[in-house]
Amino acid sequence: MTHAPVLKVENLQTRFKSVQRGKYVHAVDDVSIELYPGEIVGLVGESGCGKSTLGRTIVGLEKATSGRVLLDGVDLSSLSGAALRRSRRALQYVFQDPYSSLNDRQTVGETIDEALLIDGTYSLDERSRRTKELLDQVGLANAVKDRHTRELSGGQRQRVAIARSLAVNPRVLICDEPVSALDLSIRAQVMNLFLRLQKDLGVACLFIAHDLALVRQAASRVYVMYLGKIVEHGPSQQLYDRPSHPYTQMLLASVPEVDPRVEKLRSGPLLMGEIPSPINPPSGCRFRTRCPLAVDECAGKAPPSHRLSPDHNAACVFAPELYGGKRSALVQQSALAASV
Hints:
Function: Probably part of a binding-protein-dependent transport system y4tOPQRS for a peptide. Probably responsible for energy coupling to the transport system.
Largest sheet: 8 strands, mixed
Distance between the termini: 45 Å
Strand order of the largest sheet: 6-7-8-3-9-10-12-11
Protein name: ATP-binding cassette domain-containing protein
Subcellular location: Cell inner membrane
Mean pLDDT: 88
Order of helices and strands: EEEHEEHEHHHEHEHEEHHHHEEHH
Membrane topology: Peripheral membrane protein
InterPro entries: AAA+_ATPase, ABC_transp_ATP-bind, ABC_transporter-like_ATP-bd, ABC_transporter-like_CS, Oligopep_ABC_C, P-loop_NTPase
Strand content: 15-25%
Helix content: 25-40%
Structural class: alpha/beta
Low-confidence stretches: 335-340
């Protein structure tokens, strides 16, 4: 990338007080990511790894313990009042569940109009025109404007949520599993709509998901997160073709094949065991308690981040060998032996 990132997260840490006295939940730990204008970046990992907390911290729904979020080079934590509100408009969030993210007592028109009203730059007539324009963009007839959101289907509700997030012309969208709560029959429709809008409007997007196939289709780059840390990141095609962290390899191998005959015959490395508690994360490499390649060195200190290509990094002592394909078979054999 030759131009400056529109969003830059530096060494972000988010911790919550635990019910255990004196303990903290290490939800996000020393995470750094970059998002460039007009691109879609994927953020993947198991449930509970900290993906949603990272997204919520970026937009200010959760308070960062340390680190910085920079929008166009400006540290958001240094702003307050009107300046902070202006910057926050450029960062919008699309929630996973369209049934809980919209107010059932509002009509569709009121839902979108509220965002425009808070923005404060539109007159009444302009808000009305903008609402109609947004409904057209997301494929909803203007007739739904007077219907309550509770009367809509899940797919329609998520289209309204997308329209609301686009109302103030954001530069960055944080999309937290935006289609996972929808029926399979309409998931593709909403996803195709989202991709078209993102391309037409040129908005940058951090796409949080556990559906790796969906991320591969949408994202140009991918970050892989495990227990609060980024363990690997790189160009989408390269990361999927040459995964170089054992967790990434096993995560990809866990994706079921569509053809049941292929699924029955495959023997890829599968994830074993449960993700450790973020209250007491393992020392050294956090994946070592589930990793078939773990050695004593992995427990001693955090693994180095190896630069495998100009844009591909992986935090594992074996990353160079995995990138070269020398240990991929060992990961598979070790994982299969552990499952016996």
